[in-house]
Amino acid sequence: MAILTEAAPAGPPDPIALLSHPPTSPALQSYISYLSTLAALEAPAMPDPKIYADAAYLNYYPLGLSLMFVPRPESAHHWGAGARWDDLEGRARDMVLDSVDVYNKPEGKGEEEVKGATTSSRAKNPPFAAYPALPLTLPLAPVTQSTSSPSTPPSTSNSSLTPASPALAPSTRAVDLVRALGEPGRKGGGAAGGIGIWCEWATPWGGLMVEFRGREAVGPQAWEMGKEARWRVATIFAGEAGEG
């Protein structure tokens, strides 16, 4: 699976600007190379593909990164649940990046209790490392993507939303995100024995969903105690928040 071969760029690429790019995009390849350099890998990380009926995931465990590709809206190509990535690579132009997951590794009391609940699922796949390019800036000004050159950085304009560019750091808590982004449009989770609380915000590029973990993020008092929980995974996605 020789997808990623380019040298890392001089500065950090913006994952938001990569939404709607195909898997073969030079900008996407440079993004993986850059993250691999930050993670001190000897070569660009290679993905572990997971193929489903309506989406293909490329999981980069050493980079704390997962990329979800979907068929282009205008494409007649859809794959079945039994498809392999090798079968799809030749049709890369029919796929676009629909969402980017970046992972954090919070530390704190109660973390082991939550990890114990997912031991069986983690045994099947390696754990995700922490995303090496934190803090991750989240521009709230509208993002304009270039259609002529995928590697062209996005341009931004003034926005009424403030702060203009909150950053997602390893220590960012739920209360920090609410202060920066306002009340989420959607939220859920927190039930005992289930996933931690999650919040979703509409953004100029589509949406941002953040899941939290730790003892504060689960149980009957999750929404009272969860404001101090640190984030576990952030999903940057295209389209409109709340779709589906």
What does the model show?
With 244 residues, the chain is α+β, with helices and mostly antiparallel strands. The protein is built from six helices and twelve strands. The strands form three sheets. The chain has an eight-stranded antiparallel beta sheet, with no helix packed on it. It is globular, with a radius of gyration of 18 Å.
Question: How is the topology of this model organized?
Answer:
Elements (H helix, E strand, L loop, with lengths): L25 H13 L9 E4 L4 E5 L4 E7 L13 H4 L6 E9 L7 H6 L2 H4 L13 E2 L5 E2 L10 E2 L10 E2 L5 H8 L4 E3 L9 E6 L2 E8 L8 H4 L4 E8 L7
Antiparallel strand pairs: 1-2, 2-3, 3-4, 4-12, 5-8, 6-7, 9-10, 10-11, 11-12
Label this structure with key terms.
alpha+beta, 12 strands, 244 residues, 8-stranded antiparallel beta sheet, 6 helices, single chain
- Strand/helix succession: HEEEHEHHEEEEHEEEHE
Q: How many strands?
A: 12
SSE-based structural type: alpha+beta
Overall pLDDT level: 76
Strand sequence of the main sheet, in spatial order? 1-2-3-4-12-11-10-9
Share of helical residues: 10-25%
What would the principal axes of the Cα set say about the shape?
globular
Give the distance, in angstroms, between the N- and C-terminal Cα atoms: 32 Å
Taking Cα atoms only, what radius of gyration do you get, to the nearest Å?
18 Å
Q: Major beta sheet, specifics?
A: 8 strands, antiparallel
| Unreliable stretches | 1-10, 108-123, 142-162
Number of alpha- plus pi-helical segments: 6
